[in-house]
């Protein structure tokens, strides 16, 4: 006789990994070509360095490396679906996920991309959880991967200092809502009235259908940073509160707040707004910058590898990005320590 009746179905996190490219770009290196300096960058953003891909590398290369590590960490060789969330796909068409799946030996699995800019990982988690709880998939590999160095104008000092390249991946399995590692509750939202605050103008159907000449600046990522900053603080705090209310958690129930690593000042403002001590805010933005859809799983992988997050700890994940989009998710950390290597420890591995 079972001693414990199974709870409702849920997606349970069972593997995690991060990966960053080898090349490190320091603030001082950026100051050699831009009108900026290390002190400005550190005090305004908290960033000290970031990793960037070499010419010839692409988002899928990072996604494959993170995905392979996450599968190994979970101890699984197959999944039913591969989701890549990215703003920098290898090409406009097809999606990046099928090629990533094939390179991981997962051809045959469902594979598709999710686009929600820097909120992509939380949207991807909700999508993966939906596939699992609806019975469509038993196991899902979710990868957040971005190479903003391929879309940011290297001479745009406001954006070139913020972004870095990287990937983070999780494996989710079918389980019950009271299993440690079960993801949910969720809060997801958007406000497209502000789509122009974060944008790449060229390359889509709108610009192409006008038949006009593409301006150099339209190929690059553009962000009205100051306005985005204010939206980010407000929306992240609102979303975090909403998911805590839905779950009946109090702020004090949160052991670790794992936000999208946009800018250290933003993260601290959100923590202050929520009444969370800043020490509970998980951050690695100093080492990797803003890595878009990769930032939450990279921050998680970093913290778990350092054993700063331990089994049983309660986590609040909150993201914000272009769209505008935002989202939050709660989970209790499962007993899957340790992550085999931190995201910066390459060992003998290569990305391919
Ligand atoms: O991941 C998706 C969501 N993204 C975010 O949440 C990012 C949100 N925004 C930010 O993180 C910040 O707005 C930035 C880091 C992008 C900029 O920091 P800020 O404190 O908002 O600066 P600002 O845009 O208000 O600019 C202040 C000054 C300006 O000079 P003036 O007009 O006051 O003379 C800028 O031209 O700082 C100047 N500036 C710089 N100076 C030195 C802008 N970038 C730089 C730079 N170095 N790299």
UniProtKB/TrEMBL annotation:
The gene name on file is fabH
Pathway recorded for this protein: Lipid metabolism; fatty acid biosynthesis
UniProt lists the family membership as follows: Belongs to the thiolase-like superfamily. FabH family.
Q: How does it assemble?
A: Homodimer.
Q: What top-level branch of life does the organism fall under?
A: Bacteria
SUPFAM superfamilies reported in the protein's UniProt record: Thiolase-like
Concerning Pfam families, the annotation shows: ACP_syn_III, ACP_syn_III_C
Main localization is: cytoplasm
Assigned EC number = 2.3.1.180
- Give GO BP annotations, semicolon-separated: fatty acid biosynthetic process; secondary metabolite biosynthetic process
A GO molecular function term, named singly, is: beta-ketoacyl-acyl-carrier-protein synthase III activity
- Enumerate the spans annotated as Beta-ketoacyl-[acyl-carrier-protein] synthase III N-terminal domain: 112-192
- Under what name is this protein listed? Beta-ketoacyl-[acyl-carrier-protein] synthase III
Active site at 118, 260, 290
């Amino acid at each position: 006789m079972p001693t414990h009746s199974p709870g409702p179905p849920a997606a349970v996190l069972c593997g995690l990994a991060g990966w960053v490219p080898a090349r490190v770009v320091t603030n001082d290196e950026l100051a050699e070509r831009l009108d900026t300096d290390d002190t400005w960058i550190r005090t305004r953003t908290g960033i000290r360095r970031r990793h960037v891909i070499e010419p010839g590398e692409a988002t899928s290369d990072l996604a494959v490396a993170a995905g392979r590590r996450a599968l190994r960490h979970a101890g699984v060789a197959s999944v039913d679906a591969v989701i890549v969330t990215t703003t920098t796909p290898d090409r406009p068409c097809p999606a990046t996920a099928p090629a990533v799946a094939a390179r991981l030996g997962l051809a045959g699995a469902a594979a598709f991309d999710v686009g929600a800019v820097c909120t992509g990982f939380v949207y991807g988690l909700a999508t993966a959880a939906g596939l699992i709880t609806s019975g469509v998939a038993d196991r899902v590999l979710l990868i957040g991967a971005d190479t903003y160095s391929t879309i940011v104008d290297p001479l745009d000092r406001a954006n070139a200092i913020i972004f870095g390249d990287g990937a983070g991946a999780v494996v989710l399995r079918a389980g019950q809502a009271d299993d440690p590692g079960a993801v949910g509750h969720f809060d997801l939202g958007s406000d497209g009235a502000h789509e122009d605050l974060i944008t790449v103008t060229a390359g889509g159907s709108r610009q192409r259908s006008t038949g006009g000449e593409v301006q150099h600046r339209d190929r690059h990522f553009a962000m009205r940073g100051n306005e985005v900053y204010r939206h980010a603080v407000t929306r992240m705090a609102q979303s975090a509160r909403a998911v805590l209310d839905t779950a009946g958690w109090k702020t004090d129930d949160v052991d670790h707040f794992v936000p999208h690593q946009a800018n250290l000042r933003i993260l601290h403002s959100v923590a202050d707004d929520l009444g969370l001590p800043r020490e509970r805010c998980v951050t690695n933005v100093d080492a990797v910058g803003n890595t878009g859809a990769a930032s939450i799983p990279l921050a998680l992988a970093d913290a778990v590898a350092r054993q700063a997050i331990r089994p049983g700890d309660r986590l609040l994940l909150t993201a914000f990005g272009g769209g505008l989009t935002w989202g939050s998710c709660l989970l209790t950390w499962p007993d899957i320590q340790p992550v085999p290597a931190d995201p910066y420890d390459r060992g003998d591995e290569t990305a391919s």
